Amino acid sequence: MVLEPYNLIRYILSKNVLQLDISGCKIMTSELSRPDARNCVVEINIEKKTDKSHEFIAKQPRYFDNESAKFINNERNFYVFANNNNIDSVGALIAFDDYNKVLFLKKRSALEVFTYDSFFKLENEKAFFKVVASNLKTFHDKTKNLTNFGKLLDAYTPFVSIRRLINEFPRLQKHDYSDKPKFTNFYDLISDINYQLKIGEILNKWENECIIHGDFHFKNILHDNNGSVVEFIDFELTGIGDSNWDIACFIHSILVDNEFFRRTRTEVLNQYINIFLLQYPNADKAKIIQFVGIKAIWHCWITLFNEDLDIKIDLIKKLIDYSSGNFEFKFLFPRN
Q: Of 81, 106, 131, which residue sits at a domain end?
């Protein structure tokens, strides 16, 4: 059974999952996820006439298969663990329906899900990047000291999927995609033995050091009106891993997102990235840059026929080829 947004609301009301007195309430909902996304994510507000409103986010897989169940169970386990250990910047789990795999998170009324309109309305956009990076670093630092998290989390390392994907490339047949020239270009890159060796070297740099988000990008951030308070959501890919991966995922979201890229000057994008990295003074910059390349490979694979694929292939080459020395992210941007 897959519950679409309106059926999800009916389900909540009929089962009274959140133990709320809903008589005489005004119910408002909006879907936050894309129609083609793996999960249906709905923001819900139950407004009571005589009491404050109840706001929460409901999340459910669109398809009931083992892979989706694994991810949503992993996310549920993490929220329980995070709430029990007072980990900052993580939302509070209200309830979880194991049968239908529905996750309910408390949403603070002052916070909203990141959108480009909400970001560009912030009074100080640079301060927002600093707060996000600072909170992410605190998250990483605190979970390094939690020695029992491996027992509670069904740890999922993002590199497991990426390594499996890389291993599958040699079995692809180029002629099968002769009618798709953009894929052919991507195949040429991944099948190049020199890049295969470089990619393998980068994958071997992975270190399990703390809990990581696993899919850290703009749209998995809640923020207040001035960007001084943030919370992170969507922890289905969380697990024990390398903190540099979260940093790389965030930088990747700056580099490849068309809407953000279109509305922001190159020098400003470069400033945003550097402000973020200042919160990690001891980070291995070369490793982060190469991890961005691995993330870009994964992103290209799942969005193969995107109109900007050739630009992204060029970006991957620059990232994977980077080794050391002074680095400015502005050289990655395909414009002046």
A: 106
